[in-house]
Amino acid sequence: MDEDEILSDELAALAAVAGGWGGLTRFVAKLMRKNVHEIDLVVALPFDDTVEHVAHVLGRAGRRVDAVSEPGEGQRTIRVVAGGGFGGMNPVVVTALVTKGGASDSQVRLRAAAKEGLIRQRAGERTAARLAALLDT
């Protein structure tokens, strides 16, 4: 499932819980602009330890929507939906691509995407920065 579908489904679910029309919300969400931010990190851990560390940090930040996948040899993808924006009410899809580096380090590409309404909250940008700080420690 791609991040636009995940974001539309999450916003529709929020609308349904609030007594709104989930179907209409899903349609409108597909038309909304998206705030996306990517950050590249080097983590000073071997590949398997980095995958475990990233999965732990992202797991604490949100709900996993995809299992850890293997897009290629020496790579793992981890995806969660976290809360961002005002009060953490805006769903943010966070995808981490962990790539095997040298013997003692790995690269992580962190991508966070959120839908933007009339008021720009930059939820994707802020969530990426917050999670990158947690991964860097």
Structural topology:
Blueprint: H1 3-17, H2 22-31, E1 34-43, H3 47-61, E2 62-69, E3 75-84, E4 90-100, E5 106-115, H4 123-135
Helix pairs in contact: 1-2
State the gist of this model.
Helix content is 39%, strand content 36%.
Supply database-style keywords.
single chain, 137 residues, alpha+beta, TATA-Binding Protein, 4 helices, 5 strands, transmembrane helix, transmembrane, membrane
Structure description:
The chain has 137 residues and is α+β, with helices and mostly antiparallel strands. It has a single domain (33-135), classed as TATA-Binding Protein (2-Layer Sandwich). The mean pLDDT is 88. The chain is elongated and about 50 Å long. 34% of the residues are buried. The chain has helices spanning 3-17, 22-31, 47-61, 123-135, and strands at 34-43, 62-69, 75-84, 90-100, 106-115. The longest helix is centred in the N-terminal third of the chain and has 15 residues, at 3-17. Strand 3 (75-84) and strand 4 (90-100) form a beta hairpin. Helix 1 (3-17) packs antiparallel against helix 2 (22-31). A five-stranded antiparallel sheet has the order 1-5-4-3-2, with helices on both faces.
